[in-house]
Structures are given as C-alpha cells and as structure tokens.
Write a structure and sequence with these properties.
Elements: H1 23-30, H2 38-50, H3 54-74, E1 80-84, H4 94-101, E2 106-111, H5 114-124, E3 130-134, H6 140-145, H7 147-152, E4 157-162, H8 171-184, E5 190-196, H9 204-219, H10 228-233, E6 239-240, E7 246-247, H11 261-264, E8 274-280
Parallel strand pairs: 1-2, 1-4, 2-3, 4-5
Antiparallel strand pairs: 5-8, 6-8, 7-8
Bound molecules: S-adenosylmethionine.
S-adenosylmethionine is lined by residues 23-24, 27, 61-62, 85-87, 110-113, 116, 136-138, 162-164, 167.
C-alpha cells in the first residue's frame, strides 16, 4: 500500500473529530484514499505490522462489491440497491456500478460517520437516482421508515452489507438485524455480505485473525470477527448462490472468469481474513 501522505490532511468537515480514528477513515486509508487524518493513519501503521496484506484485502472487497453489483444489475435485473455502511466514496461506488448497467437503477447509501455524511451529501448532487441517508443501521425500524429507504422497497432490492456487520459485537443482535432488513425486502431481492472472519480453531489463519481483531478492538471495541459458520448463518432462510460463503477471492458470479492473481500473492493465513456470500430471497 502507498504510505498515507502525512501533513496533507483534507479539510475537516463539520462534526468530524480528527483526534480519534474512525473506521470509515481508516478503511479509506487502507484503500489509498485521501480522506483520513493522522489518528487514522496511526491505526493503519499498527495493523500493517500485523498484516501487511490488509490493503490487498480492502481492494479485493471493492472488487467483490463490483462483481456483485454488476451481476445483480445485469443478470438478476435488480434496479434497487441499498448499501448499508457504504463508507467514504472511492473508485467504483455502488451507484456508478449499477447505473453503468442501468442508468435508471436507484441506489440508497446509509452511513453514520460524519465524514461519510459530508461526502454523501455531495454524492446526492450527482444524479436524481442516488440517495444518501445519514443513519445508524442498528435501528432498523427507524431506518426502514425513512422515506428514501421505504421508497426503494417497491421492487426487488440488492441489499449490500459489506464489511459492516462485524461492527456489531453481539452475534444474536447482528443476526436479528439482518433478519429485520431481509424481512422488509420484496421476494426476489438479494442479500450480499462481506465480513471479517476468524475460524477460531487454533490454526495459523485463526492466530492471525485474533491478533488483528485484538489490535482493531483497542480503537473500535465493538468489532467482532466471525467464523465461516456464523457468517453463513446470516443467510438462513435464503437461497445461497454458488459458491456459497467463501473467501472474497473465491467468489465469482456464474459465467465470469476467475482471476487468481490477488489470491496467489497472499500467504495462506492472510488469505482467510475476509469471507462473503450472496443469496436470494425466495
Ligand atoms: C469498513 S467500512 C466498509 C465500507 C464499505 N461498505 C465497503 O465495504 O467498502 C464500514 C462502514 O460502516 C459504517 N458503519 C459502522 N457502523 C455503522 C452503523 N452502526 N450505522 C451506519 N454505518 C455504520 C462506517 O462508518 C464505515 O463507513
């Protein structure tokens, strides 16, 4: 990863506390973005000492998101997308991916980070089919009642929960959140999840995941990695598409050529850190 530039901090948007790291800005720094501050970059430096491959994972997460959104828009003919915990805008955001396939596709973003909210407002100006809702996704009743979110539920939706569910510490609460959102979606909708994984089986990948989890939790105490079985349980009652719940690198939609380049560049342990899946609501 290019070392985040120091001494070139971006303008501070209202409500943004730069003295403490935010996960949205730390993630932006991993992606090589410019919307981060020294408090965020200090976390990045500590994490890189444990897992120098993490930037490759964050980039792969965005590539996975692109594969999912393009497949949903093109093959599944999904015209509504709800991206919970959207993060700071980067290259190839959900609305750009979906609207490249179908300019009429409507995309709603939700995030509660002040820096993301400031950028989200700017995103709103881009076109009439892109929306941003500044909200906490852990209060589904409130969020589902929001006119923008409610307005997206008139047709099958692609619900994206990319690298957000592991910010809720309690597994049962997280499962219940997923269940509430899925319950609100029309039949024929899809649920896409990517998630930090810890197999917790004493293996080398588990030791690496535990070291990462502990370091992240020093700053973000609610963060919780989950086992592949726990991640799979979010999809209960849904039709999981092949290849089911797997490493991000191993998830490719039907008919799309596998690119093994990134996976081949990672160690076996680092290769296990992020898992994902896509399922259809019957
Ligand atoms: C690691 S980033 C992932 C961004 C994007 N989904 C992606 O995969 O590229 C996690 C995002 O979730 C947001 N987030 C965390 N907890 C949240 C909450 N309770 N409500 C809304 N957003 C939240 C953070 O602000 C951050 O932007």
């Amino acid at each position: 990863m290019p070392e985040p530039a120091s001494g070139q901090d971006p303008v501070v948007a209202p409500g943004v506390d730069v003295s403490r790291p935010s996960i949205a800005r730390v993630y932006d720094a991993f992606l090589g973005g410019k919307d981060n501050f020294e408090s965020d970059r200090a976390v990045v430096r500590q994490i890189l000492r444990i897992a120098p491959e993490l930037p490759a994972w964050t980039r792969e997460n965005r590539r996975w998101l692109a594969r999912v959104v393009e497949w949903l828009a093109r093959e599944a003919r999904i015209t509504r997308f709800l991206d919970l915990g959207s993060g700071l805008p980067t290259a190839q955001n959900t609305h750009q991916l979906a609207q490249r396939v179908n300019p009429a596709a409507k995309v709603g973003y939700v995030d509660n980070d002040p820096a993301v909210i400031a950028h989200g407002r700017a995103l709103l100006l881009e076109n009439a089919n892109t929306f941003f809702v500044p909200a906490d996704f852990t209060t589904p009743d409130q969020l589902l009642a929001d006119p923008v979110v409610a307005g997206l539920l008139d047709r099958p939706v692609g619900l994206i929960q990319a690298l957000i569910l592991h910010h809720v510490e309690d597994l049962d609460q997280t499962r219940e959140l997923v269940r509430r959102y899925v319950e609100a979606l029309p039949s024929g909708s899809y649920l896409a999840i990517s998630h930090a994984c810890n197999p917790r089986d004493g293996s080398e990948p588990a030791l690496l995941a535990t070291a990462l989890e502990e370091k992240f939790r020093e700053q973000f105490p609610s963060l919780r990695f989950r086992t592949p079985a726990e991640i799979t349980s979010y999809f209960d009652g849904l039709e999981l598409l092949e290849p089911s719940v797997v490493r991000l690198f191993d998830w490719w939609p039907p008919g799309v050529d596998h690119d093994e380049t990134t996976a081949a560049s990672l160690s076996e342990a680092a290769g296990q850190i992020l898992y994902c899946g896509l399922a259809r609501k019957p």
